[in-house]
Design brief:
The protein is mainly α. Helix content is 56%, strand content 6%.
Length: 383
């Protein structure tokens, strides 16, 4: 029989004595959680409404898949930035050979995140959010980057910690021996309805709790933060709260980084789950509003370009339309990439680029006479 627990009575876990240090052993969360807090219920209702609006709005956007790539790239660059990478959103859009050699390792980490998220979304068709899927995503995330020696695709087999050293750690997660049971409990909680376990917890409360618990378990030697944030988007898609991956909380967590970490620690130290849940729901509301605004801005920009700018190209309008569609998918391109995307000669591509510069659609980034790179800056600016 599944235990029922009120959110206000949440007990995070206990410190357990190890050799010369104490690790935190979280309690299992696969329970029927009851919410009686008026403030939390009100915030949950608001977050549900805005998430529903975003999902409905995204269904109305023509060719929305053009724009999903930009959402994913921004999420990848911001989520990786939280972990210390220096690749900007604009740099993440550039080809590897055009990135300064000293920046390529960070650039690759962002590209791995994009690959991991895209692959995970594809796998959701045949694989639920599970330990198997989480490990597959982690393996992609750490391929060929600085965490490549830290057991990609495998849960840790040693103690880890958050801080400069074990002695000065801000937080010490459970020992590696506890991980299998804790992650099995987490998987069960995520998939309760599929497993026909009588747990009916509102989805946004559930994923907030899942994110907290995952970060508390910290099951990998590296990449826990990125996987934990990626799980939020996967959950929203898997449970059909979103039909497309259009909401990402990494930007909200980055801009409120201190509150993010403080609220997670408050749960562990003071059992204050409600404050974390309110913070998380505020993030959903704020981010959904911004995503809706971004789509509105994209529609306005698209209308302006296609009705006012491209018409000035005369007989070149057809190629102009092909180029603008290519730029929605990848707003930073060189002449070779544009020629390939349009299936035209390089000379034709260069003439069209000049037309787009005159129309203030494209801007050259390098200042070079050769190997020039062009950006659809107004579009990038929306993100």
């Amino acid at each position: 029989m599944i235990q029922t627990e009120d959110i206000k009575d949440f007990k995070a876990g206990n410190l357990t004595q190890q050799y010369k240090y104490k690790s935190f052993l979280p309690n299992k969360i696969s329970l029927q959680w009851i919410i009686n807090s008026p403030q939390l219920l009100s915030k949950l209702g608001e977050a549900d409404r805005y998430l529903g609006r975003l999902d409905s709005f995204s269904e109305l956007i023509p060719d929305i898949d053009f724009f999903i790539f930009m959402h994913v790239t921004k999420e990848a660059s911001v989520s990786s930035k939280i972990e210390g990478t220096q690749t900007s959103f604009e740099e993440a859009l550039i080809k590897e050979e055009d990135i300064h050699p000293k920046k390529r390792d960070d650039w690759q980490e962002v590209q791995n995140y994009i690959s991991a998220l895209n692959q995970a979304i594809k796998n959701l068709d045949k694989l639920p959010i599970s330990n198997r899927l989480i490990k597959k995503v982690h393996h992609i995330l750490l391929q060929g980057v600085r965490g490549k020696h830290k057991l990609p695709g495998e849960y840790r087999s040693s103690q880890n910690w958050i801080g400069k050293s074990l002695k000065k750690a801000i937080y010490i997660p459970p020992t590696h021996q506890e991980i299998p049971n804790l992650m099995q409990d987490l998987e069960q909680f995520i998939n309760a309805e599929v497993l026909e376990i009588p747990i009916a917890v509102p989805h946004l409360i559930k994923i907030a709790l899942v994110h907290y618990q995952f970060e508390t378990i910290h099951p990998f030697l590296d990449g826990n933060g990125r996987i934990g944030r990626l799980l939020i988007t996967l959950y929203l898609i898997d449970k059909n709260l979103l039909k497309r991956p259009t909401l990402y909380l990494s930007d909200y967590f980055e801009r409120n980084r201190r509150d993010y970490y403080d609220n997670l620690m408050l749960v562990r130290e003071k059992n204050d789950l409600e404050k974390w849940l309110l913070f998380f729901l505020d993030g959903v509301i704020e981010t959904a509003k911004k995503s809706i605004q971004s789509f509105n801005d994209i529609l306005a920009l698209r209308e302006k370009i296609e009705l006012n700018s491209l018409i000035k190209l005369g007989r070149k309008q057809k190629d102009g339309k092909k180029l603008i569609d290519a730029l929605y998918k990848n707003p930073v391109m060189d002449a070779k990439a544009i020629a390939k995307a349009l299936n035209v000669h390089i000379a034709t591509a260069n003439r069209l680029i000049k037309d787009f510069e005159k129309l203030d659609i494209l801007k050259e980034l390098t200042g070079y006479k050769r190997n020039r790179i062009y950006a659809f800056e107004e579009y990038i600016g929306i993100f």
